[in-house]
Amino acid sequence: MNPRVVLVTGGASGMGRIFAQRMAERGSAVAVLDRDLVGLEDVAGNSSQIHAFHCDVSNLHEVRSCVEQVTRELGSIDRAVHCAAIMPTAPLVEQDAEEIRRLMSVNYGGTVNVAKTVMPTMLERGAGELVIFGSTGGSVLVPECGAYCASKAATNAFAEVLIEETRGRGVHVMLVCPPLVDTPLLLQARDSSDPKMIRDSISRKRLADPESIIDEVERGLSRGCEILLPGIEAKLVMLARRIAPRLLWRLLHHFDRGTS
C-alpha cells in the first residue's frame, strides 16, 4: 500500500526528484521541499500530485513552518524522505571556515531539523517512515571532500542512533548510504575544487545510476531494512574501511595521484 502523504526534501533534483515523481505516479500526495525555485516549479509542473514548498532545511523555523503547512493542506505525513544536501569541495586547509560550517548546517543540521520535526507526530501515531540519505562518504573519506565527509559521518551516526532509540515504536527509520551517484550534487564538487577522485569516477563512468538507487530504497522500505548500502560498490568500500582502513587510504592516494 502506497503512503497517502509523502514529504521529500531536496526533491527539485537528483534522487529526491526521482522519488517524488514515483510516489506521485502511484497516487501519493507529495510535498517537495527545496531551495531551488526553478527546480521546484519544474517538478511540480509535471504532476498535480506534487506540491512545491520553498524551504532551507538548515533553518528549523522554515522546516517547522513547511511541515505544518503540509500537514494542514495534505494531511499527516506518512513517509518523509530526506535527500537535501550540498557538496562544495576543497582541501580543508584552504576551504573557508564559513563554508565548512554551512556544509554541516545543511547536511547534518538539516537532518536534525527534519527528523525532530516529523518524528514526534509519527511516534505519537505509532506509524510512519523516515528515510535519511547519509553517504558512504561518512565512512570512506576522500581528499578534498573532508567537510562533506564530516557532515555525512554526523548524519550517519545520528540516523543509526535514532534507529536504535525508536526501535519497536511503530516508526520505520532507514539510513541509506549510497556511493557516488550520477546526480546534480556532483556538479557542486566539479564547480568548486573538482576533486580528482570524483573527476576520475565521472570519466570512467563509475557513478551509480540514481534510478537503481531508488529501486533499492523502495525494496529496502518494503523489507523493513534499517541501514541500506545500495549497490555492490557501497558494500565493498564500507567493508574495506572497516577491516583495512590504512590500505583503503593507500588505494585512494594511489588513484588520486594517477588521475590526470
What are the defining features of this structure?
globular, 7-stranded parallel sheet, alpha/beta, 10 helices, Rossmann fold, 260 residues, single chain
Structure description:
- The protein has 260 residues and is α/β, with parallel strands linked by helices.
- The chain has a single domain (5-258), classed as Rossmann fold, CATH 3.40.50.720.
- It is built from ten helices and seven strands.
- The chain has a seven-stranded parallel sheet, sandwiched between helices.
- It is globular, with a radius of gyration of 18 Å.
SSE order and pairing:
Elements: E1 5-9, H1 14-25, E2 29-34, H2 37-44, E3 50-54, H3 60-74, E4 79-82, H4 97-125, E5 128-133, H5 146-165, E6 171-176, H6 185-191, H7 196-203, H8 210-223, E7 227-228, H9 232-243, H10 245-258
Parallel strand pairs: 1-2, 1-4, 2-3, 4-5, 5-6, 6-7
Helix pairs in contact: 1-8, 3-4, 4-5, 9-10
**What helical percentage do the residues reach?**
40-55%
> Strand content of the residues, in percent?
5-15%
Mean pLDDT: 94
List the total number of helices: 10
Strand order of the largest sheet: 3-2-1-4-5-6-7
Number of domains: 1
Task: Compute the separation of the termini in Å.
Answer: 50 Å
- In angstroms, what is the radius of gyration? 18 Å
* CA-based shape: globular
Question: How many strand elements?
Answer: 7
The description of the largest β-sheet is: 7 strands, parallel
- Secondary-structure element order, as H and E? EHEHEHEHEHEHHHEHH
Uncertain segments are: none
Here the CATH topology equals Rossmann fold
The CATH homologous superfamily is called: NAD(P)-binding Rossmann-like Domain
| Class inferred from helices and paired strands | alpha/beta
CATH architecture: 3-Layer(aba) Sandwich
**At the first level of CATH, what is the class?**
Alpha Beta
